[in-house]
Write a structure and sequence with these properties.
Two copies of one chain form a homodimer. With 456 residues, the first copy, chain A, is α/β, with parallel strands linked by helices. Chain A has helices at 30-38, 61-65, 78-81, 149-168, 172-178, 188-204, 234-246, 338-356, 393-407, 411-427; strands at 22-26, 45-50, 54-56, 75-77, 88-92, 95-99, 104-108, 115-119, 122-125, 130-131, 180-184, 218-222, 249-252, 259-260, 264-267, 270-273, 276-279, 283-284, 302-303, 309-310, 313-318, 323-324, 373-376, 382-386, 389-392.
Chain lengths: 456, 456
Amino acid sequence: MTGTESTAGRTSIRLQPNGRPRVVVLGGGFGGLAAVRELRKSNADVILVDRCNHHLFQPLLYQVATATLDASDIASPIRTVLRRQQNAVVVLSKATAIDLERQQLMLEGVHEGQAEPMPFDWLVIATGAHHAYFGHDDWAKRAPGLKTLEDAIDIRSRFLLAFENAEVEGDDKCRRAELTFVIVGGGPTGCELAGSMAQCARCSMPRDFRGVDTRTARIVLIQGGDRVLPTFSPKTSARAQRILERLGVEVRLNQHVTDIKEEGVFVGDDFTPARNVFWAAGVQAPSITRTMGIEVDRAGRIPVGGDCAIAGHPNVFAIGDVASATCAKTGRPVPGVAQGAIQTGRHVGRIIAKEIRGKTSDRPAFKYFDKGSLASLGSGRAVADIWGLSVGGRLAWLIWGLVHIMFLVGFRNRISVMVQWSIQAIFHQRGARLIAGEEEVRVKLPELPSNRDHGS
Amino acid sequence: MTGTESTAGRTSIRLQPNGRPRVVVLGGGFGGLAAVRELRKSNADVILVDRCNHHLFQPLLYQVATATLDASDIASPIRTVLRRQQNAVVVLSKATAIDLERQQLMLEGVHEGQAEPMPFDWLVIATGAHHAYFGHDDWAKRAPGLKTLEDAIDIRSRFLLAFENAEVEGDDKCRRAELTFVIVGGGPTGCELAGSMAQCARCSMPRDFRGVDTRTARIVLIQGGDRVLPTFSPKTSARAQRILERLGVEVRLNQHVTDIKEEGVFVGDDFTPARNVFWAAGVQAPSITRTMGIEVDRAGRIPVGGDCAIAGHPNVFAIGDVASATCAKTGRPVPGVAQGAIQTGRHVGRIIAKEIRGKTSDRPAFKYFDKGSLASLGSGRAVADIWGLSVGGRLAWLIWGLVHIMFLVGFRNRISVMVQWSIQAIFHQRGARLIAGEEEVRVKLPELPSNRDHGS
């Protein structure tokens, strides 16, 4: 606003008290959307608050980072997703604090530093998590992580720019470092990034460059544990490692990164010269969880009971990656994957819907149903753990593709992603090879010997 | 680079002197690419320098700004476009100066403020132009123009954010200003933006919002001249104006914007409250044209002869929007459109190819062949001047669509654009409704009345 008009007399649009209970859902990811949808028939005002206007399909984010898909293919405006749910209102805003005492969410206000309260009757915290550097926040600049669309576009630009730099780099050692990509973390994101980058360098790019052979790019995957994909079965882990190694990825197990410099990565005394480091290890809940005055775990996650509610606050729930929940059947923690978020979201939505209808019987305890795990490792290759079976190769990739198309939100995105995948499979072309942000383009040009004595 | 290695001993990759003349083309737009392609059979090293890694299909840029297409649909990596032309090398770098005396292009170097020379035997300047504010550079922040992908994404974010702000804005006057979009300039870009924005507000968005009727958005097109599309025939201009007005666009002719404030736009004493102003008036050649020590015109464009070469420098050419060229047949200036760039590019490419082959007969003078003009005004509606005929409505739109698909670079982009258009035509959904840059999201929330007395 211009600062000239007074705030007096401003009335909230469509957010007036109308006698209906208000459910505020913070975050429009898998968990938040699932909770909102579960409330579609409820006699309540459901307000979804997110600082982004889009729901992001995170499982395919690595494909934006490696230029297969463009941002809009995996994102849908939350408003459009919820357009048919008449009791749902979407508010684009950033939440700064949660006030359990006064039962309100604090939203970033018009004026700098000023917060505006949004009271709630029920609150569902579904912010998700972002990546964490285990106390080494200075690594963030050199080793970007992959959680948002902006992250993906940043990684894509760095990845593509490395080849541009290598193309004109005269010094062999520098060119080597320019073409070395280190990925820290061997979970699904790390493995998928590594596989996709290796394939891009080997299949999509070679013909485009004159001065470098992009197939010589070195992709190093550093994993702290003794196998990649530690949440998968050991057999599938071994299979995934074989697939990655066949693609040319250097898989290093039992190694912990001790420092990340501009010139490369240290694992103890062992130094790997690399100009490009990407971070796929460790997650952390956003700082808003620490504003509630309750105890959170080391990663900032909110401990919840079997009903996914916070102890002592039966009307405040936490779901998905921001919650530290336990499966009532197995006693194991609910994994930080899309399925975990969706299932906790539905669970909470059902509880709220029921209690708004006046049924206040005992709340059921959450049971996680493991539908299986999937990871794609380059086009045409994937691994999967399904119903206790380890599947690999083309069959796994087919399942992976079908499942991801199915779960993508929005008909348009499904069509678009299928088209992009087909084009890549047939022509080995990646559609979204765009380096963003002109300002950052700074290619290191070697001194050129004069060419003027020749020619016309 | 890290700054620790020495630059001594660095050799340029693939840019060594090899006895072949070197043609440097600055800019990978329509003109630059046309010139490079014309040299495909030449015994020369062709070096295309651009600060972006992609060729941009500017005629559809407004569709990125209005969320129909995403960035990658209208951009192709220049390397991929030229992958089959073995004598062409692409260098991603920003040119800072042209040294006609020493026959070299100065490129931004490794170290801050240091430039690296790239000698040339032939130079083709094809940088294009950017928008200009007629000396009011302070308007740039408030009224962004549309020339690059970044511009388009910025405009898209502002356009979409306006509706988000309006949705939660409690004050009627503020909401009105938030939903008023002023477009300055009634040329093709201005008209296409206005038509597309009007359609988006009327057809794609209404069902997504609860608090505002997006159909009440006011779109104002301010044109300095006495008709829109002044380069088209008067009949077509009138037709375009009718189409725009039917879409709800307020067309204002013979008006000159005198000031742009955060609160709105001044035309003399007449003030229009508007929070969103977009600039589609006036172009300016980039400042590099002023580094050559030759006289340029008021817009910074380089005056060229009939051969598109600079007077006194027969081996240095300027083409497309950066040149001030004249058609040898009509004596009229070559228009700043894609066709003008492509045709001057080919003309120059042919001259260079011929002279490299040793034929130094008189150079032919450039003749512009007007293939017609097209402008799309919302899905399903367009106007065209073709072979002296004025065409409007669905037929013009069909021609417009076919021509644009045909001229789009790259098979993948053609498919993708057709898919997006079909989806929009059928479902009235725009695929790329993404607000970029979380940091900028700052929605003005009204004070909410408490809702806590009600409900559970």
